[in-house]
Specification:
Strand content: 5-15%
Number of helices: 21
Radius of gyration: 27 Å
Largest sheet: 3 strands, antiparallel
Strand order of the largest sheet: 1-2-3
Number of strands: 5
Structural class: mainly alpha
Helix content: 55-70%
Order of helices and strands: HHHEEEHHHHHHHHHHHHHHHHEHHE
């Protein structure tokens, strides 16, 4: 057991998980050369662009942008990261004007392979001191490279994720199959609408309609088909998939770590996209009521049964794995994501068994996932965000959101608002727990090299015995006076 833990908890850490002061540059650039300085600043803001687009918090993005700039000798930098922009200004001394650059993030891309590649490039910039021109060339190659998997693989992964969440919520094979099929249609339709430039709010509205319509139809014809189905679980699985692409963790993390402006913008975007999902579900339910279809009855989750625990843990692991696959994660990151999902599902079910409530159970599970993700990310050399977001995805409050909406449509305003606020509390608890767990992982164990020097190892002096040369034989007096000499050796070790 100790050997397994030793392999998971190593001294190698993801760059974003090692927010420290940048070491003295190994090859500092010429601060009087405007072109070279501009190139170094461009590399730094482009690194920040990838991190911000993938959902990394504003503070972590700012630290990494400043780290890259300081590695090239621009130690005095001011970085301002907002919702969709990065401004970097570097001071070059009292006699030279400051150099500044700005980058606008025009997209949101859950491409975990690109995020991991930029993380490794940041390591190389620190370790190998590659030039700004070489770093910029590699960064452009990373950002312009196609996805590692075909889009149909991502579509299958989203569908399989919905089926896994349906099983995690307690559904059977039929519920999982319908959730799989409806999510497949949602993904393909939304890809087509995205190509037409339709705003994301309306894409989520369409997704909510598609997630609800098959469940209502199947429930309406259940007697003719001779099946017993819980449409609420199908709808909740589809809603959870739609919620998984939103920046829940980043918004709450920004609010906690001291970036209120970015947190407000991300949270407003989250509310708007969730509003689109709610509008789609509500529209379908209302149309079904007008047509005379019987609306599904709200089914509350029974206390967890320990006999179902292995199935739920396996479903949580599968949901996290398929989410990471849908976000184009690297193959070695898929195992870490699956372990994070299994851990989260296990802790959540055990916490529910203690009758602590879904909010505290979700926060506890997310804390464990964030902590374990930070440790496993060192082993997999993957940013902790990949494991953390994938690990809490099966716990998103899709079912609570549906319950609240259904109760409001049934004129049960108090019950509906209570369920909606519970869904909001679960979401905040998940994000806050992940933030706390990642902080615990960062402070739990520092690399030995970080403890000694806080960065790369400095040149060290070592005394060695001098070799006798022909000159020593000709001048024995000098050889006796200086029997040893000091040799300077540069030994930069991989941090």
């Amino acid at each position: 057991m100790s050997a397994v833990l030793g392999k998971l908890v190593l001294d190698r850490r993801a760059t974003v998980d090692a927010v420290t002061a940048a070491p003295a540059p190994l090859q500092p650039i010429d601060l009087t050369d405007d072109a070279t300085v501009a190139e170094a600043l461009d590399v730094a803001v482009r690194v920040g662009e990838v991190l911000l687009a993938a959902g990394t918090g504003a503070i972590d993005t700012s630290d990494q942008v400043q780290f890259v700039a300081a590695t090239y000798g621009l130690a005095r930098c001011d970085v301002d990261v907002t919702y969709n922009s990065i401004v970097l200004s570097a001071h070059r001394g009292p006699t030279m004007p400051p150099a500044s650059t700005m980058r606008i993030v025009h997209y949101r891309s859950m491409d975990f392979t690109r995020l991991a590649a930029v993380d490794r490039l940041t390591r190389r910039i620190r370790r190998d001191a590659i030039s700004p021109a070489q770093a910029r060339e590699e960064l452009l190659a990373i950002t312009s490279a196609p996805h590692p998997y075909h889009r149909w693989v991502a579509t299958f992964a989203w569908s399989a994720m919905a089926a896994s969440i349906a099983v995690l919520l307690g559904g059977g094979l039929l519920v999982a199959a319908v959730a799989f099929a409806s999510t497949l249609v949602i993904d393909r339709v939304n890809r087509y609408l995205n190509g037409l430039g339709l705003p994301f709010f309306f894409q989520h509205l369409v997704g909510g309609i598609i997630a609800t319509a098959p469940a209502i139809t199947l429930y309406a014809f259940r007697e003719q088909l001779g099946v017993s189905v819980s449409p609420g679980l199908i709808i909740a699985a589809g809603v959870t998939v739609l919620l998984s692409g939103l920046s829940l963790v980043g918004s709450v993390q920004d609010a906690i770590t001291g970036a209120p402006i970015t947190a407000s913008a991300r949270f407003f975007e989250l509310v708007m996209m969730t509003g689109g999902i709610i509008a789609g579900v509500a529209t379908t339910l209302r149309v079904a009521a007008v047509l005379g279809s019987e609306l599904p009855v709200i089914s509350y989750v029974a206390p967890p049964d320990l006999t179902q625990l292995p199935t739920k843990v396996a479903a949580g692991a599968a949901a996290s794995l398929f989410f990471a696959l849908a976000c184009y994660a690297e193959r070695r990151a898929l195992t870490a994501a699956a372990l994070g999902g299994a851990t989260g599902a296990l802790v959540y079910q055990l916490a529910l068994g203690l009758n602590v409530g879904p909010i505290i159970a979700s926060a506890t599970a997310a804390t464990v996932v964030g902590f374990a993700g930070g440790l496993m990310a060192r082993r997999a050399l993957t940013p902790p965000l990949v494991v953390a977001v994938a690990g809490i995805t099966p716990l998103l409050p899709g079912l609570a959101l549906y319950r609240g909406l259904y109760a409001i449509l049934q004129s049960e305003l108090l019950v509906g608002l209570t369920a909606l606020f519970a869904a909001f509390g679960i979401g905040c608890g998940l994000a806050a727990g992940v933030t706390l767990g990642e902080w615990m992982a960062r402070t739990a164990r520092y690399p030995r090299s970080m403890r000694r020097s806080g960065g790369l190892r400095r040149p060290s002096l070592r005394r060695t015995r001098a070799r006798r040369t022909r000159a020593d034989e000709l001048a024995p007096e000098t050889a006796k006076v200086t029997p040893r000499f000091v040799r300077l050796r540069r030994d930069f070790r991989r941090s």
